[in-house]
């Protein structure tokens, strides 16, 4: 039995991951680096399409909506009126808000595996990370151009971290180092970024 589906797609929210295209290539296509809803009409800035869908198409469209990482795709079953994939963020019945607090002087703990020295090399456009177990005695040097390459190597390949907060710290510092390289800023580990000179 054919089902009527309405797809509402917020093109402005799209970040071009192409997950919807992979899931439903008959209904989403790539245009200008972003997904485009096939056969759409505009409704208040949103791309809208109505489809008669068999079971295969139904599953593809629902999967496309569910796979969107930025909640840009809404899918509604027009026969039942049920929203199959929503774009609204809701809160759980036991939802609560927490104010973040941390006292570095009281709560900081060293990773027993060791620590990292991080610097940027503006000449090669690379981030250099030295892993130490003893004070300023580098055992391993990891070099890369992007934070994800470096922290994935450190965490998953070299297995140099044992504490999750150490991983979070490393991610923060690597992103700062990357921004310093991209914008010609001075990077000093644990300090705020500032203009060189």
Describe this structure in words.
With 197 residues, the protein is α+β, with helices and mostly antiparallel strands. The chain folds into two domains: 3-85, Alpha-Beta Plaits (2-Layer Sandwich); 104-195, no CATH class. 27% of the residues lie in helices and 31% in strands. It has a five-stranded antiparallel β-sheet, covered by helices on one side. Helix 4 (147-157) runs antiparallel to helix 5. The protein is elongated and about 70 Å long. The model has no long low-confidence stretch (mean pLDDT 94).
Shape type: elongated
Largest sheet: 5 strands, antiparallel
Helix-strand pattern: EHEEEEHEEHEEEHHEE
Instruction: Give the number of helices.
Output: 5
Which band does the percent of strand residues land in? 25-35%
* Quantity of strands, as a count: 12
Class from helix and strand fractions: alpha+beta
Task: Quote the average pLDDT.
Answer: 94
Count of spatially separate domains: 2
As a percent range, the share of helical residues equals 25-40%
Radius of gyration: 24 Å
N- to C-terminal distance? 70 Å
Strand order of the largest sheet: 4-5-1-6-7
């Amino acid at each position: 039995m054919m089902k009527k589906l309405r797809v509402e797609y917020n093109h402005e929210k799209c970040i071009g991951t192409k997950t919807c295209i992979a899931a439903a290539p008959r209904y989403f296509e790539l245009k200008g680096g972003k997904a485009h809803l096939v056969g759409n009409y505009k409704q208040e800035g949103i791309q809208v399409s109505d489809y008669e869908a068999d079971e295969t198409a139904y599953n593809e469209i629902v999967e496309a909506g569910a796979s969107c990482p930025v909640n840009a795709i809404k899918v509604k079953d027009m026969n039942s009126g049920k929203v199959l994939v929503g774009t609204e963020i809701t809160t759980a019945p036991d939802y609560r808000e927490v104010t973040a607090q941390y006292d570095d002087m009281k709560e900081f703990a060293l990773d027993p595996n060791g620590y990292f020295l991080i610097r940027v090399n503006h000449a090669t456009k690379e981030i250099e990370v030295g892993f130490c177990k003893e004070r300023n005695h580098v055992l391993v040097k990891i070099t890369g151009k992007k934070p994800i390459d470096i922290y994935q190597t450190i965490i998953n390949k070299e297995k140099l971290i044992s504490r999750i907060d150490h991983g979070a710290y490393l991610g923060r510092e690597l992103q700062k180092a990357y921004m310093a390289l991209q914008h010609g800023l001075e990077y000093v580990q644990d300090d705020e970024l500032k203009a060189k000179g």
